[in-house]
Amino acid sequence: MSWMITQQRNDEELDALMGQIREQIVKHGGGGIASLGRKFRIADDNRDYRIDLKEELPKVLRELKINISAENLKKVQTLLDRDRNGSIDYEEFLYHLAPPMNALRVEWVNKVFDKLDKDRSGKIKKDDLAKAQNADARYNNLCRLCDKRGDGVIDREELIDYYREISPSIDSDEYFVTMLTNAWKL
Fold first, then answer.
1. Co-location of 13 and 48 in the same domain
2. Where do the EF-hand domain residues begin and end (predicted)?
3. Domain boundary, last residue among 53, 72, 97
4. Are residues 148 and 93 in the same domain?
5. 120 and 49 assigned to the same domain
6. How crowded is residue 52: how many other Cβ atoms within 10 Å of its Cβ?
7. What is the DSSP letter of 126?
8. Same domain, 91 and 108
9. How many CA atoms lie within 13 A of 46 on its CB side?
10. What is the per-residue pLDDT for 165?
11. Which of 32, 45, 143, 162 has a C-alpha 20 to 30 A away from that of 109?
12. Domain of 89, in residue numbers
């Protein structure tokens, strides 16, 4: 139980620090996801598609004109390094940098989940898509994109996390809703 409380505090602290970094990127005209990708590749000295948290992360932050204290940089490095391997991949970095989805977008992702979870089990399983056209292909694609736990089922949190990752690249709420409506025939 104390581990969960500590993890929640760490998540909140990381969210706050990444929020400060995000605000500075916006303030300095960060140029969006494509610009971040370029700066990431520039900083990725060894071309492993990962940011070394000790050497390359400070370089990325300098490229982005981010002012961060040495103490907060150390906190970000420690909090991002959940598996203690000293690095973070680009997608995970963007995930932590991305703002949370607004309530409207979460509401529409929940509508998608509710539609796909036919038996109301709280999990999307292959059987839930059985009557859909191209069910196997759609399910396999959905699992490939969303099933972070690798258990062959998708829960609500995994679907929301997937859409949270792509949400920053979709400018308007209207387009986000249209995309979900068309993709899932809502």
1. yes
2. 68-103, 134-169
3. 97
4. no
5. no
6. 19
7. G
8. no
9. 10
10. 79
11. 32
12. 2-97
From first to last of its 186 residues, what are the pLDDT tens digits of the chain? 454 555 567 778 888 888 888 788 777 665 655 567 777 888 888 888 888 888 888 888 888 888 889 899 888 888 788 778 888 877 777 777 777 889 999 999 999 999 999 899 999 988 887 666 566 777 788 888 888 888 889 999 999 988 987 887 787 999 999 999 998 888
- Chain-centroid distance of CA 23 in Å reads 17
Measured between alpha carbons, how far is 170 from 81 in angstroms, rounded to an integer? Answer: 28
Shortest CA distance to 85 belongs to which of 48, 53, 110? Answer: 53
Q: What angle do CA 171, 98, 146 make, to 5 degrees?
A: 90
Statement to judge: residues 54 and 119 lie in one domain:
no
Structure tokens at 178: 């249209």
Do strands 87-89 and 50-52 pair parallel, antiparallel, or not at all (unpaired)? antiparallel
Contact 74, 65 (CB under 8 A): no
- Residues in the chain, how many? 186
Amino acid identity, position 139: Y
